[in-house]
Design goal:
GO molecular function, one term: nucleic acid binding
Oligomer: single chain
Protein name: RNase H type-1 domain-containing protein
Radius of gyration: 16 Å
Helix content: 25-40%
CATH superfamily: Ribonuclease H-like superfamily/Ribonuclease H
Structural class: alpha/beta
Domain RNase H type-1: 61-174
Number of domains: 1
CATH architecture: 2-Layer Sandwich
CATH topology: Nucleotidyltransferase, domain 5
Distance between the termini: 18 Å
Number of strands: 7
């Protein structure tokens, strides 16, 4: 089950993101605005605001192989960098990369009048979606759902980003995992 938090949405307590998740999102945003003074020899990817008129939706889907449980984190940002909505949830290991994409595509339908840029760090998902042949695996229906949702909207772009540029969604997914007592 996904929990959802949105400004002015009137969401009930059964679907609100845990208060700690919102704090983590604020911390991530603060860290973006105030980078550490210590320099690093390794170049790090950094989250970037979407262009004017876009809504960027970041996806996270980490999983724990030992337990077979995966988390889902989805965070939306507008061109000013504010996040009007986010959600988190859990899934099993097999769905940990595809399910966030499907949920992100459904989530993106909240902003039909702007360009939507969906970012995630799963190259495998991009590869699966670009295949022309039918996916006959047990995830085939989920792949088909994602392809159908992408085809329904002209103004949704899918983009792979480095893990470091997707930290807010990954943190939210870890909160979802932790809320199960698995963290």
């Amino acid at each position: 089950m996904l929990g959802l938090s949105s400004k002015g949405s009137g969401c009930g307590p059964h679907n609100l993101v845990p208060s700690g998740a919102i704090r983590l999102l604020h911390e991530s945003y603060y860290e973006l605005q105030h980078p550490p003074l210590i320099s690093s020899s390794r170049v790090k990817a950094k989250w970037q605001r979407p262009p004017l008129g876009f809504m960027k939706i970041n996806l996270g889907g980490p999983c724990r192989a030992a337990t077979g449980i995966g988390g889902i984190g989805i965070v939306a940002h507008d061109h000013e960098g504010t996040f009007p909505a986010c959600c988190s949830g859990v899934s099993n290991l097999l769905h940990a990369k595809l399910l966030p994409l499907k949920e992100g595509l459904l989530f993106a339908q909240r902003w039909p009048n702007v360009q939507r840029l969906i970012e995630g760090d799963g190259q495998g998902v991009v590869n699966v979606l670009s295949q022309v042949s039918q996916d006959l695996s047990h995830l085939g229906c989920l792949v088909d759902d994602c392809k159908r949702l992408l085809a329904q909207h002209d103004n949704i772009l899918l983009q792979r980003v480095m893990k470091e540029a997707n930290e807010a969604a990954a943190r939210l997914a870890r909160v979802a995992l932790h809320s199960l007592g698995d963290g």
